[in-house]
Amino acid sequence: MKQYTRAEVAATIDHAVLKPNMTAADIEKNAAMCIREKVASMCVRPCDVELAARLLKGSGVKVSCVLSFPHGADTALVKSFQAKQAIINGVDEIDMVMNIGKFLSCEYKYVVKDIRTVVDVAHMANVTVKVIQESGFLTLEQVAKACELSLQAGADFVKTSTGFGPGSATPEIIDVMLRTVGNRMKVKPSGGIRDWNTAVGYLQQGVHRLGTGSTEAVLNGSMS
């Protein structure tokens, strides 16, 4: 089983800066940490994309942002506009929330169209799309179904959680995601990743990114 270095784990992290009380000073402080640790991206609120893009310019750290966060309940038209605005402001990757209520209502055509609306806008600008399921609301069978719908809609990643809903990522959920779409999409656990062993455990399962707001705590657990 692969052993990971601090730098290797850092390179997989999307560092979350999403709490509602975050200030501009918080964005600046977190951006400096992301640059120092060479993480994959800093994931911010839509209103912070422009600032994050300025702070991270030339650093190699991507700007990612959430969209329709945390419930996914905006209309497709609104989500399309949000995606366009984020792209104008300098985003590289978008983490959109699946419409959870529509999914649980078995309105699968709606869900696919909703995701595809964002994917179409994003891919025109070479922007990656991750679909957050909020897996804590779902059974493992529903996790698999949500993965299939995200694949059908053309998204790049499936992701477990917003961090603002029930539960968090689990190895069982990640196993289902990887078995369902792991050879056709990328997988990102998010929620509950607060230490080195948890992070490395998911990487050893085969995930491609890690979503956490506890980046320094995770990396400080490394022995290398």
Description:
This protein is α/β, with parallel strands linked by helices. It has a single domain (6-219), classed as Alpha-Beta Barrel (TIM Barrel), CATH 3.20.20.70. The protein is 46% helix and 15% strand. The chain is built from 10 helices and 8 strands. An 8-stranded parallel beta sheet has the order 7-6-5-4-3-2-1-8. Helix 8 links the parallel strand 6 (157-159) and strand 7. 47% of the residues are buried.
Question: How is this fold's topology laid out?
Answer:
Layout: H1 6-10, E1 13-17, H2 24-37, E2 41-44, H3 49-56, E3 62-67, H4 76-89, E4 93-97, H5 100-104, H6 108-124, E5 128-132, H7 140-152, E6 157-159, H8 171-181, E7 186-188, H9 196-205, E8 210-212, H10 215-219
Parallel strand pairs: 1-2, 1-8, 2-3, 3-4, 4-5, 5-6, 6-7
